[in-house]
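During the no-cost extension, the postdoctoral fellow (Dr. R.K.) reprocessed legacy sequence entries with the updated structure-token encoder. One reprocessed record is reproduced below for audit purposes.
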Amino acid sequence: MATDGFSKIKFIEGIRQADAVAENVVIVLDREQGAKAALKKIGVKLYSLITLREVLEYMKENNLVDMETYNEVMDYLEKNE
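Re-encoded structure tokens follow.
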């Protein structure tokens, strides 16, 4: 999982200090809170199996989340991109 990418960046810095190459990060869930952009700044591509928006869309389509919660989370994501 990734939020802002801070822990991924610190890990990559350690790998690079050991003269190893780190160009990609693979995660299961991207919470879409800036990790992709932060990693791109240091030359790393982020791959995710699913994003929070995709999870929310699935939940909405299958009536697993009420519209108020759905809208609150989507608004939060929009404001924190």
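The chain has a mean pLDDT of 95. Residues 27 and 51 are 10 Å apart (CA to CA). The remaining legacy entries will be reprocessed before the final report is submitted.
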